[in-house]
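Supplementary Methods S3. Complex input for the magnesium ion-bound model.
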Amino acid sequence: MTIGELCDALQAEVVSAGDETQKIEGVIVGDLLSHVLGSARENQAWVTIQTHLNVAAVAVLKELPLILLASNRRPQEELAAKCREENVALAVSPLPAYELCLRLGALGIGDVRGS
Amino acid sequence: MASPYLENFVVDENELFSIGEAAAQIKAILKMLGIPSDVIRRASIVAYEAEMNLVIHGGGGRMELEVRPERVKISALDAGPGIPDIEKAMMEGFSTASEKIREMGFGAGMGLPNIKRNSDSLELLSEVGKGTTLRAEILVKQEREG
Ligand SMILES: Nc1ncnc2c1ncn2[C@@H]1O[C@H](COP(=O)(O)OP(=O)(O)O)[C@@H](O)[C@H]1O
Ligand SMILES: [Mg+2]
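Predicted complex, serialized as structure tokens:
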């Protein structure tokens, strides 16, 4: 599923569109930057409640093309601006992280082991 | 690459929000040099964690990148407070980061373990009141056939 399709399906509020045609291959959930840094794989969507600028730095470094802010957490302006500059997609969902992940699972995202 | 590729990066202690700039530059250089992607992945983690520690604990400092065909070496040097007990600092979950820093998702006590896991050799030298030097090497293994 592409970033554009995914944001539509989730009815998430898109703050930065990123590369809407890019395919998402799985999900990483976490608010500890070191955890995401150590565990994320390229092209995963990142579900988090962290809203500060450094989220973009980690996403860029780990090549995570989509940041999904859960629980209606508003991104700080610096994060929004940086995501637009770096062409990283950033979207806000009212759903808490767990429910957001259930939705992602229902959309077929995340079952990528061995692929 | 006849001679090693060398680069230096200054890391400012006030740049909490721009942590990752040196790591991003290191990643870009490794890509430019054609280093295998798994080595770049590991080096990026090492560089980012080392940069975080410079800013959060070391009062800023500098980083060095040295690239040879057979290995990537990343160093982080500071003249900060130093580490009283290195063995303890290396333990998963040990952190002296403030509550505020933790809430931002930094300071999970996973940095040094992350660096160790992603490097082939790690040297951590520190003297209380003098500073800390971290050196990590990541080997570039030749592609296996078959
Ligand atoms: N450059 C440094 N200068 C002083 N102390 C450091 C430095 N790097 C690490 N430390 C100490 O080691 C601890 C563990 O580091 P780390 O594993 O990266 O976890 P974290 O940074 O999340 O606290 C830090 O909390 C700090 O006490
Ligand atoms: Mg750390």
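Strands of chain B lie at 5-11, 61-68, 71-78, 121-127, 131-139. Residues B 53-54, 56-58, 78, 80-83, 89, 94-97, 107-112, 132 surround adenosine-5'-diphosphate (ligand 1) (CB under 6 Å).
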